[in-house]
Amino acid sequence: MSEQSDVQHTTEAHASTRTYLIIAAVLTVITIVEVGVFYLPALHGVLPPTLLILSAAKFFLVVGFYMHLRYDHNLFRAVFILPLAIATAVIVGLLFLFRVF
Amino acid sequence: MSHAAVAHHTSTGLDSRKIAFWTFIGSECLLFGSLIATYLVYQGRSVSGPTTHEILNIPLTSLSTFDLLMSSLCMVLALAAVQRGDRVWARVWLGMTAFLGAIFLGFQVYEFQHFVHEGLGFTTNLFGSTFFTLTGFHGAHVFVGVLWLLTLLARSFQGKLGPEKALNVEIAGLYWHFVDVVWIVIFTVVYLIQTTPLPTA
Lengths: 101, 201
Fold this sequence. Notes:
The complex is a heterodimer.
Chain A: H1 3-10, H2 17-38, H3 47-66, H4 74-97
Chain B: H1 16-42, H2 52-55, H3 58-83, H4 87-117, H5 126-157, H6 166-192
Helix pairs in contact in B: 1-5, 1-6, 3-4, 3-6, 4-5, 5-6
């Protein structure tokens, strides 16, 4: 592989500063909504799924934009997503095993 | 500017250090997955002592969560500054990231002290053991991250953190953002989703 190509993979073009600021604003808003939902008694029935969805949104925004996984090579995605999926399966499996649900 | 010094030839065309670090982050997912699973399995099974409902301080933790999210913003801005060769702003953002990380640690130390004062120690009950283990491991990661950032800051002041070293900052950034996403999960699972305690056998 040429040096040019190596360089391209090493210093992939990432998001702009404006995008980073927008993501930060979105993360802040989601956090405010999370805390707001927590204090609303009317929403306590749907609290866990709502919070998990909001949390997942924050998680993937940070991983996708700040960790640049959205712009990076598929191999990086694979070595992150596979263990993440295993970890999630372990959590869900243990919760069922110990009858937490 | 030339990044040729950073890149080296590999069979994948990708930098081996970055692949190695993503693999390390993958292994960290398994570590924190296990810790979070353990916390959830034992949640609500404490037979004595303070529990989640009685002791967790949501407003304070919301502030520390916001603090850590903003540190992630500073980290990406630091990387962008290093990549474009802007040494002044690279130092500013690296310093801010480390500073916000230190503030987060301050929040955690205060929280731990408050819990101990309220009678919740590591061996008080299942909640104490799993909570301190999970958040303690995370705090230790933040501490390592702050030291790493301060090292990069020192290298910058020595004039040894130019654009050709951007990958070093990117890898430190990957670590820092991972610490942030772990906290995003902990904040939701441990602090916000407080399920009704299960009846004890």
